[in-house]
Amino acid sequence: MEFLEVKGVPLYPLVPVFDSQDLPSTQKITNPAPGRYGITPGVLEGKVGVDLTWYYQQTKDALVSIPDPPSSGWAGSHLVNIGEIKNTGLEVLVNASPLRSRNVEWNSTLGLNFSKNELVTFGRYPDGSALLDEITFGAFASVQRHREGYPLGGFWGRDVERDASGAPVLTNGGVTVMDACTWRPSDPSWSQADCQEEYMGPMLPTREIAWSNTLTLFGSFRLFANLDYKGGHYQWCAICSVNSRVDLNTLELANPDPTPEEYAEIRASRSLQTKKWIQPADFIKLREVSLSYTLPTEWSGKAGADRATITLTGRNLWYTTDYKFREVMYDPEVTFYSLDSFSSLDYASLPMMRRWMVSMRVGF
After folding, report:
1. What is the mean pLDDT of the chain?
2. Which end of the chain has a smaller Cβ tally under 10 Å, C or N?
3. What pLDDT is stored for residue 41 in this prediction?
4. What DSSP assignment string belongs to 165-226?
């Protein structure tokens, strides 16, 4: 690898411009080292099946986009092979048939997933110094970080100065926002205790549960329902911050007669603090409910078909979530960008729509 040098001191790796279809010789293909182990026992005479899988994956030489240094003369970013990423998790799949008779059949599937990712290291220069200390990013405010020892894209928030009771401290009618953290673990004199940013949590779910049930009656009617849970992650409500700082059009700010405590919180909301707007994004959703009816063969046969089924389906009919402001729940699954870049935020994005559909499936 070549380095940009100033007075003989290596400052930054030089990466040539290349077409996305052609990986240059200075870069290497991401090298994952997976480990996956599982067991699939069956119990209760085959009425219950359990599939357990534990996985461990180390990814070395991961391609990560990092900003170009000002000294390079370029204003942008480029991909380099840096560091090591670790992924671990446990997957559990349970299939059960609690009820099976001539006229009634009930099948149930429960899937659980517990996962964790960690940026182990950015990598080191030949002299042993750190390639990077951190990568900061975020829309409307810098709230996400790639930092060693933490999940990729984790959320970090800044609060205002508060007293022992947790109330904002007012100075000349205003609040003091805590300083952004200068993350320098490669500096021996640096201490994380000096960092005024607070780690809020990961941007990707660490817990997932999916539960689906199918009830079949008399071989003709089929009722299906699917519940989905995701949790352990956080969301950045950028629209909440903009509404409070710029638009000044929230119910909180429109209070014509706030108490002293409410006034202090209003001043905090209008500041550049971000902690208030980074909230837990746990949710439970009723993803789908459907009712199907298979027509008698005499009916479908008159149309020259072997089988015909009519289905009424409803999707995204209900949800509950910890992602709320002023006791109003918002959809935490919205995002302004693709998650490929680890950027996650809620800003003027449409939530998942509630939909009803009628379909007919014909077999010949």
Report:
1. 85
2. C
3. 64
4. TSPBPPBTTB--BPPPP---TTSTT--GGG---EEEE-SS-SEEEEEEEEEEETTTEEEEEE
